[in-house]
Amino acid sequence: MKPVPFREVLEKKDFIVTVEVAPQKGTNTGKAISHINLLKDRVDALNVTDNQSSVMRYPSVGMCLLIKENGGEPVMQATCRDKNRLAIQADLLFASSRGINNVLCLTGDAIDVGDHTQAKPVFELDSVQLINLVNTLNSGKDMAGNELNGKTDFCIGASATPSSDPVEPQLLKFRKKVHQGISFVQTQAVYDIDELKRFIEYARKLDGGMKILAGIVPVISARMAEYMNANVPGIFVPDTLITELKNTPKGEGIKKGIEIAARFIRQIKDEKVCDGVHIMFIGREERIPEILEASGLWA
Amino acid sequence: MIVAERKPFEEIWNMISHYNRILVLGCGTCVTICWAGGEKEVGILASQLKIAGEKNNELIITESVPERQCEIEMIQELKDKEGNIDAILSMGCGAGVQTVAGIFTDIPVFPALNTTFLGMPEAEGLWVEMCSACGDCYLAYTGGICPVTRCGKGLLNGPCGGTRKGGKCEIDPEKDCAWVLIYRRLEKLSMLDLMEQYREPKNYRAVKRPGIIRATAR
Questions:
Q1: Are B108 and B143 found together in one domain?
Q2: Are B153 and B214 found together in one domain?
Q3: Radius of gyration of chain A, Cα coordinates, nearest whole angstrom
Q4: Res. A299: pLDDT tops 80
Q5: CB–CB contact B161 A125 (8 Å)
Q6: Do both B72 and B146 map to the same domain?
Q7: Residue B125 falls within a domain, yes or no?
Q8: Are residues B65 and B157 in the same domain?
Q9: How many angstroms away from the CA of A27 is the closest CA of chain B?
């Protein structure tokens, strides 16, 4: 079955579901392919991370190709951390030439959090400039104004952090992303429906026409929630969820996390809070189908 | 000012231990202010070298602290010492070390400091980086706070998603997110429209490295 281009999905589908998959460190693609085959027909697109958490891995474009080869629809995540403008443009031309037509434009995590902490952080562009750059390639020109022999046709996405504190500078930057022209947004993990609603209300007013997918990261223990609240920027797990996790019998944390995630997804869908969800369950991709089933999204 | 830190003694000793007549050369300007290479630090390092080399009867440590190591004239004045020394241990910044090496052509010059950044003293014993010498100053748009230097990623259009609670930096929770500082300052000055404007990708060749500026008139 040929996958529906993500651009069409964004236009036509009422509730869009994407998931995140992470490439392996090394050349063995077996596990990646099994994740792709497990998920490709159940979701609208698979995002592939780009040296996620600044940990060196198989490239995003490589796993996007595996997704194409196996009949799925990839979203290539592109960060500004590791490449200058020549390298980023060259990568995008290559991806486009091989039918990878969706790109999520990100700044990228700091080098310091990864496994090559002495590397030179590039960040020659920022995410707003990267969105501008992809639109420029789509128009048939490169960043220096030269004509391209064959232009790209990317469907462009951006991220957002609705739970940031303070949120105003983040919203200002988000506005700049929207003004550059994006088709979809995949947010950082959100757990508080009111917070999500406030962000969606704000984003709708910007009138960018983009579809917004709420970020879902299952929390599988109270300890994880507390750790995330203390250490992971832009994430806030409310106390009610932490209490619920604390009251979960030992060994049932993952089950509980899946249940909470599914409940939140159902609420978003039933209340039509936004246009869909983006599920990130890195390291536990094989359990994503349980979330889809429990939230009624397993077609 | 230029801020520097002294290298660990072991590293310095490994560079210099097989020389007998060593000139420890400080600098009276930036590195004096940042407690890295002034008269006091030259004296301390000289003492450490003497203790480490106490078994070497031929070891002669001399000290000198010109006003500025990066000025040819001020270093030229020391040139007559060259015949009496085997090596120079510079406690200047990288520019100082190279100025000295350019004048003392017949003996090796070693750096005792790591030059770290352009900054200013924020409190007693605390220096912070302020400028990257990028050759294309953005401070007019950012409330006088440099995002190129003080944002851990050098971003130009606002904060990354990594801003921690309370406006701290993803890279170091002790440090403020430069973009939160910029936002607050521009807000106070009613100049937030400057942050709303799209900033084009930076010209990273505003200074062609290595940089040279030739004055056409004075």
A1: no
A2: yes
A3: 18
A4: no
A5: no
A6: no
A7: no
A8: no
A9: 30
**Pick from B155, B165, B198: CB nearest A107:** B155
Shared domain for B109 and B152, answered yes or no, is no
Neighbouring C-alpha atoms within 13 Å toward the C-beta of B129 = 17
A169–B198 CB contact, under 8 Å: no
Contacts of A233 in chain B (CB under 8 A): 161-165, 170
State the burial class of residue A288 (Cβ atoms within 10 Å of its Cβ: 0-12, 13-18, 19+): buried
Query: CA separation (Å) from B185 to A64, A164, B144, B157, B176?
Result: 42, 19, 9, 15, 13
Confidence grade of residue A234 (pLDDT, cut at 50, 70, 90): confident
B63: domain range? 2-116
Summarised one tens digit per residue, pLDDT across range A38-78 is: 999 999 999 999 999 999 999 999 999 999 999 999 999 99
Cβ atoms A105, A158 nearer than 8 A: yes
Q: Are residues B83 and B178 both part of a single domain?
A: no
Q: In angstroms, what is the C-alpha Rg of chain B?
A: 22
Asked if residue B123 belongs to a domain, the reply is no
Residue with the two structure tokens 């979960």: A248
Residue B209 within a domain: yes
Q: Among all residues of chain B, which has the CA nearest to that of A170?
A: B159
Both tokens of A111, joined, read 């080098």
**Dist CA A2 CA B211 (whole Å):** 55
Residues B42 and B142 in one domain: no
| B82-135 per-position pLDDT tens digit | 999 999 999 999 999 999 999 999 999 999 999 999 999 999 999 999 999 999
Q: How many domains, in total, are found in chain A?
A: 1
What is residue A62's predicted lDDT score, i.e. its pLDDT?
98
Domain limit, last residue, from B81, B116, B151: B116
Q: Alpha-carbon distance A44 to A259, whole Å?
A: 22
- Report the distance separating Cα A29 and Cα A77, nearest Å: 18
Tell me: do B110 and B20 sit in the same domain: yes
Residue A140 has pLDDT above 70, yes or no: yes
